[in-house]
Amino acid sequence: MTCRYLLCFSLYIAIYPGIFVYSINVLIKLLHKLIEQTFHFETKIAIETVSNKKILYDSDSLTGLQDEVYYIISYNIDQFGINLISDFHVLERINKDSIHRVLVKIKNEINWFFSTKKSLPKDLDSYKVAFNSYSSGLFSHEFLGHFLETDHFFRSPLNREKEWNFSRHLTIFENFHIPETFDDNGDPITKNIPLIRNGEILHLLSSRLDQQHSHNTGNGRRENLRMPVITRMRSMFVQPGKTSEEKHIESINKGIYIHKIGMGEVNIFTGDFSVEVSHASLIEAGQFTASIEPFHLYLDIRHFFDKEIVFCSNSNEYHSLCGKKGATVKVKYISPSIIIEGLGNAIQ
């Protein structure tokens, strides 16, 4: 079998050259082995190093020094000139283990692409919808987190609607276990903010620009010096439950299990939320029985109040990129798998 691979760099900052050389060699060897043993395709990989160094001063002294470095590994998989798969992963460090995890994810992407998939069932209203820990974190970030940013919340007519109470099992913290002390305005960060506790909204995220509406929580962030400081999420923690995902899945008679979702879109004025689900499986009598064709979830946040959410005991940490008003920053979420009752009618 003839194999081709191309390793390219969109940006390369050699902060730790030895580690980079070692990791890139590992990546090439593993990728070459993967291509030879599995499929015939061309893979393009870009490794970008993002380094943000910030020194904050008050009127006469040093306020704080912040140094953030992370890595973006993006890849495109083509076959016969046609792009099959494109995605990226955000890593806090580059080493043998992190590279291996990315390669495993690439292999899983390829296997999923070529797997046989079934169409969606017809009676979806009766189906429960389960999200793995990665998808539930992204779902919570997009569907709930952005609504609780003050500049969004008070611009939306939805904040004048009925009392905002979600599932009594839902508890979310923001600015969770972070090393930073000051935001990009130089204002102190309020850490471990309980945004939602037992389904009740307690706090919003705010920065200096919108503190007239809410206490300034120090969530002013910007991508770089050319961009304005706006209110952004930083690190979200969704509180897990006490029972394992496996036990909960065994109890589902008919359900859809979501492995991977793309970036969502929220309309802050109407409450509409949409997201593409690229990887999902059918659950029948507590077992995964088939892969499902991609579909979309369409939700209205007002119809989410009466949804019962089951939180599993597993909890995993993920890093991603978040775009808002043309600016992109790194975000983190720590989340468990969740199961939502009565969400099947949102699937299309």
Automatic annotation (TrEMBL):
InterPro entries: Metalloprtase-TldD/E_C, Peptidase_U62_metallo, TldD/PmbA_sf. Pfam families: PmbA_TldD_3rd. GO terms for biological process: proteolysis. It comes from the Bacteria. SUPFAM superfamilies: Putative modulator of DNA gyrase, PmbA/TldD. Keywords: Membrane, Transmembrane, Transmembrane helix. GO terms for cellular component: cytosol. Residues 126-343 form the Metalloprotease TldD/E C-terminal domain. The chain crosses the membrane at residues 7-28. Belongs to the peptidase U62 family. This is Metalloprotease TldD/E C-terminal domain-containing protein.
